[in-house]
Amino acid sequence: FRLALIQLHVSAVKSDNLQRACGLVREASAKGAKVVALPECFNSPYGTQYFKDYAEKIPGESTQKLSEVARECSIYLIGGRSIPEEDGGKLYNTCTVFGPDGAMLAKHRKVHLFDINIPGKIQFKESETLSAGNSFSMFDTPYCKVGLGICYDIRFAEMAQVYGQKGCQLLIYPGAFNLTTGPAHWELLQRGRAVDNQVYVAAVSPARDEKASYVAWGHSTVVNPWGEVIAKAGAEETVIYTDIDLKKLAEIRQQIPILSQKRCDLYGIEMKK
């Protein structure tokens, strides 16, 4: 099946972001994409100073538009992180997924909050305004089972391993790495998660905006279970496409059967809830 990643240029105007995102979703569908993913924070500038002002409840204005365009195009739509989700007085970094009938199939709240401090380069603390999610998020399609993470979640190998154990063959991470961590780790982490678990990994970033307070790395990428980069964007707004070949995945797992060779008598990873 064909996968499309939409590397959107995000402005400060929510309605413009949403309109352009839906237009690019329609374009991707017209080119044969059956699963389409939007980037983290596609409907709001990325920064702790923006999260409260741009927050919505789910369902809400943005998720309603995503539901409508998924139904119109008869696709599976991974809604990046539309905007921060407000629920019970707390804010979450949330990704929603809609099926071809417009129904919401999954809602993933970012499990690992991006609190880092690299002296002289970047300091960021999502926990100043956001709360962490507490669950894994998977959904089924006629093609394969898909596991979700958001940005910083990709650094935690245990999460991807659980998804692999639960039968996911594609992991999708809407993310917004920056100009410090992006060139160092963006592709490396995707290739690592793909090889470790013999799955396809797709990570979809906003386009780079040098004038923004937080500058995203861009370079949305798809990696196959052999660890090969099979599609990659530059820094500008674009849509990239790739065909997910589940036959190739099965062949790789047969050739190097690590999933059946794990020493579960010595170690293990478990999903607690």
Report on the structure:
The structure is a single chain. The chain is of the alpha/beta class and 273 residues long. The chain has one domain: Nitrilase/N-carbamoyl-D-aminoacid amidohydrolase. 28% of the residues lie in helices and 26% in strands. The chain contains seven helices and 15 strands. The chain has helices spanning 14-30, 48-54, 61-73, 157-165, 181-197, 246-255, 258-261, and strands at residues 2-7, 35-37, 76-78, 84-87, 90-98, 104-109, 115-118, 122-125, 138-140, 145-148, 168-174, 200-204, 221-223, 229-232, 238-243. Strands 1, 2, 3, 4, 5, 6 and 15 form a seven-stranded mixed sheet that branches. It has a six-stranded mixed sheet with strand order 9-10-11-12-13-14, with helices on one face. Strands 7-8 form a two-stranded antiparallel ribbon. Strand 5 (90-98) and strand 6 (104-109) form a beta hairpin. It is globular, with a radius of gyration of 17 Å.
How much helix is in the residues? 25-40%
The oligomerization state is single chain
Poorly predicted tracts of residues: none
Number of helical stretches of at least 4 residues? 7
CATH class assignment: Alpha Beta
Anisotropy-based shape: globular
Report the biggest beta sheet as strand number plus sense, adding barrel if it closes: 7 strands, mixed
The CATH homologous superfamily is called: Carbon-nitrogen hydrolase
Q: Report the end-to-end length measured between terminal Cα atoms.
A: 31 Å
* Secondary structure tally: strands: 15
How many domain regions? 1
Indicate the radius of gyration in whole angstroms: 17 Å
| Portion in beta strands | 25-35%
- CATH T-level topology: Nitrilase/N-carbamoyl-D-aminoacid amidohydrolase
Structural class: alpha/beta
Enzyme class: hydrolase
Pfam families: CN_hydrolase (PF00795)
EC number: 3.5.1.3
Protein name: omega-amidase
